[in-house]
Amino acid sequence: MSTDVLAPVRAPHRWIYAEMLIFGIISLFASFVLAVDAIELAANPDARFTCDISATISCSKVGLSWQANLLGFPNAFLGLMSEPVVITLAVAGLSGVRFPRWIMVGAQIVYTIGFVFAYWLFYQSYFNIGALCPWCLTVTIATTFVMFSITRINLLDNNLGLPERAHEAISRWLRIGVDFALLTIIIALIAAAALTKYL
What we know:
The protein is mainly α. It has a single domain, classed as VKOR domain (de novo design (two linked rop proteins), Up-down Bundle), CATH 1.20.1440.130. The chain has helices at 11-43, 59-63, 76-94, 101-129, 134-156, 164-175, 178-198. Helix 1 packs antiparallel against helix 3 (76-94), helix 1 runs antiparallel to helix 5 and helix 4 packs antiparallel against helix 5. The protein is globular. The N and C termini lie far apart (55 Å). The model is unreliable at 1-9 (pLDDT under 50).
């Protein structure tokens, strides 16, 4: 087997994979809860859940919307399919596996689509559905952390094929925590938006 595949994980990557693992598990759990709720709503549209706190904080209201079943089945099923892959990547990474470039680029592309989809759903909840689903918000936040983790690894390893000068500059920015600042801003904006509109 190629030594590249089993090369020791760089020290800075260990905590990145650990972060990916933690938030992949959180997203998988939230997706499981949403999937169970979706099945119950399909059987009984009048069902109510513990997260149905008010007219504006309601899992069932969001779950009954067309946006929650965009592809003809509950969106939560996508999480049940994708998050085990994230968890597998994270565990393998922590175990010392260094993945081929094509796998990491593929993960970047697929998870970027999931990231955009999660924020589209947040937009729909915020502006069109008029209700916030706490479990959906959990998935959105966890997806954001995982997205930053995958992107951070790909940028540090230059899996995206950036010119050397650009790669060196971005690596310097990552080492001083520019991505953490951006992540903090995004999470703060989500929290502020949710608190302002729904509480």
